[in-house]
Design a protein that fits this description.
The chain has 366 residues and is mainly alpha-helical. It contains 14 helices and four strands. α4 packs parallel to α10, α4 packs antiparallel against α13 and α6 runs antiparallel to α11.
Length: 366
């Protein structure tokens, strides 16, 4: 039955992602909202609903390792795996708005989460602060969208066809587009639920710990909506939705999922020493590395996608070696610390310096 649920869940995910991306892109056009804003809100929050459900359920059941591991693991998975695979399929163009506002916010929230967790728990007060900040973030996005709409209206009024905007808003077919979004989200949620349940059954059969299950299988399983949605969006040319979905999901995971789970938990969410010492710093580093990658010509290239995906493979191997106390753990750790990390830092630094020089030269020529 676990195999049947796994295959059924995967089928629902693919169908739901197709419906969601198609409906979201058309809804954005009908409502005069940018695809980036739709990706940061409707798509990102919707595809993160499995993480919310799993973390709340785990927090109420006093399974803190799964609750926090789901959030941290999903954020790492979203950047390294989803952006990596999506960029390998087609290079992703990154919006200037993401680089200037949303990615720095994701980095700042990752750092704040790590600092809050250093006392051993994310308390209810911390959770309330996160939830309040989420509302502020949404309000800011709505205001930005309204300003963009006002600029678009002014441009349309000055054009030869000023009635185009009104036709788009008055078109009653927006209900069909909204139906596609809701139906796609429903398929994604149910599909991810079946996928996670079957994956947990496999892991428990193999005797894997709760923390590793939360950081890998549950995190990857609940992120399947983001995976399929971003890949489908990239293939359909909706690259703002593909990238915005990942960044928005990471922000929602920290402010919404972790915040709500901390509030509903009887005494907040306890954070283990292993997460504080390793996984939270990795989440922060992964968020931070987005800045130089996104800055380079505003594109996530295929080779950068390959680097991100390779890092996720290395991270997963480390978790497996550490959980099983494998003999290769010490050698594997040494290779990561003394070779892989310095080489990556050097490569990223050289790429950023070249991009800055190119921009300066182009400005001088202009």
């Amino acid at each position: 039955m676990s195999i049947v649920y796994f295959l059924a869940g995967l089928s629902l995910l693919i169908a739901g992602a197709n419906a969601l991306v198609k409906g979201a892109s058309r809804l954005a056009a009908a409502c005069r909202v940018s695809p980036l804003v739709i990706g940061l809100t409707v798509v990102a929050f919707g595809t993160s609903s499995p993480e919310l459900a799993v973390s709340i359920k785990s927090a109420l059941a006093d399974q803190a390792d799964i609750a926090i591991g789901n959030v941290v693991g999903s954020n790492i998975f979203n950047v390294l795996f989803i952006l990596g695979v999506s960029a390998l399929i087609v290079p992703l163009v990154v919006s200037v708005q993401l680089i200037r506002r949303d990615v720095p916010l994701m980095v700042a929230l990752s750092a704040v989460t790590w600092l809050m967790a250093r006392d051993g728990a994310i308390s209810r007060i911390d959770g309330l602060l996160f939830v309040t900040s989420l509302f502020g973030y949404i309000v800011n996005l709505i205001r930005q969208s309204r300003r963009d709409n006002a600029d678009a209206d002014a441009a349309a009024a000055a054009s030869e066809n000023p009635g185009e905007v009104a036709d788009a808003v008055e078109n009653p077919r927006w209900l069909l587009k909204l139906g596609l979004v809701i139906g796609g989200l429903a398929f994604l949620v149910q599909g991810s639920h079946w996928l996670v349940e079957s994956a947990i059954a496999f892991a428990q059969y193999l005797g894997v710990s709760e923390l590793v299950i939360g950081l890998t299988i549950v995190a990857a399983g609940t992120s399947m909506p983001e995976v399929v949605t971003s890949i489908v969006a990239a293939l359909r040319g909706e690259r703002d939705i593909a990238v915005g979905n990942v960044v928005g999901s990471n922000i929602f995971n920290l402010l919404g999922v972790l915040g709500v789970a901390s509030v509903v938990a009887p005494s907040g969410i306890a954070i283990s020493d292993a997460i504080i010492a390793f996984d939270l710093p990795i989440m922060l580093a992964v968020a931070f590395v987005c800045l130089p990658i996104f800055l380079t010509e505003g594109v996530i290239s295929r080779w950068e996608g390959g680097v991100l995906l390779g890092y996720y493979v290395l991270y997963t191997l480390y978790l497996i070696f550490a959980s099983t106390h494998h003999d290769l753990l010490s050698e594997f750790s040494a290779v990561l610390v003394w070779f892989v990390l310095p080489l990556t830092a050097l490569t990223v630094s050289v790429t950023v310096v070249r991009d800055l020089r190119r921009r300066r030269n182009s400005q001088r020529v202009g």
